[in-house]
Write a structure and sequence with these properties.
9 helices; mainly alpha; flat; MetI-like fold
Length: 229
């Protein structure tokens, strides 16, 4: 463990990058999830088809393949567009942005089903009562739909977040210096890869435990006063 301790600052820097990737990715996934759920629930044909195609394709493509496609293929596409339109010259895709966009795009599909299922769990009578009382659509959303949407979505959201947190390890493949990348570099330098990856295992377990604790507290907050079966 002495070699791991010597590289502790490198590992800490990697942990911070991992957390940044996870938070940025989950924000994108929540936004895409809300848009996807709206598309599926709107009843409109075009948004519904787009949302259905999005969730079907994303859930059928391996995460690593999609990340490599966006990182390498996205760079080629941007440069080809720049050459065709003469609007820009060479563009190099940032590994951080590629990782965040890929993970956010992937988990947006799962968040779509999370929010769609949560909305369908809200009793329709409550929304009808809000409309009957003269509430505007925005007020109905803030006072009736959103609090219950969060409560019903939190269990599935928690699971998605924990999986997303582990998925951030894929960004090491495209050269982003997260905790896995730095641990791999340290293991090669000291010829002790087992100790470094064991340290990474502990780090992810700690991050998962903290996340689980915080989301459980949030679940209790939004479930206050609700009688559980």
């Amino acid at each position: 463990m002495e070699s791991v301790w010597e590289y502790r600052w490198n590992l800490l820097d990697g942990v911070l990058v991992t957390i940044e990737v996870a938070i940025a990715s989950v924000l994108i996934s929540v936004l895409l999830g809300l848009l996807g759920a709206w598309g599926k629930l709107s009843g409109a044909r075009v948004p519904g088809v787009i949302a259905e195609a999005y969730t079907t394709v994303i859930r059928g493509v391996p995460d690593l393949v999609l990340m490599l496609l966006i990182f390498f293929g996205g760079q080629l596409l941007l440069n080809d567009l720049g050459e065709l339109t003469s609007l820009w010259t060479y563009v190099e895709v940032n590994p951080f942005m590629a990782g965040v966009l890929t993970i956010g795009f992937i988990f947006g599909a799962y968040m779509t089903e999370t929010f769609r299922g949560a909305f369908l769990s809200i009793p329709k009578g409550q929304i009808e009562a809000a409309v009957a009382c003269g509430m505007t659509p925005s007020l109905t959303f803030r006072r009736v739909i959103w609090p219950q949407l969060v409560r019903y979505a939190l269990p599935s959201f928690t699971n998605n977040w924990l999986v997303l947190l582990k998925t951030t390890a894929l960004v090491s493949v495209i050269g982003l210096q997260d905790v896995v990348y730095n641990a791999n570099a340290g293991g090669k330098a000291t010829q002790e890869p087992f100790m470094f990856f064991f340290a990474v295992l502990i780090i992810y377990l700690v991050l998962t435990a903290i996340s689980d604790w915080g989301l459980n507290r949030l679940d209790r907050k939004y479930s206050a006063g609700v009688r559980r079966a």
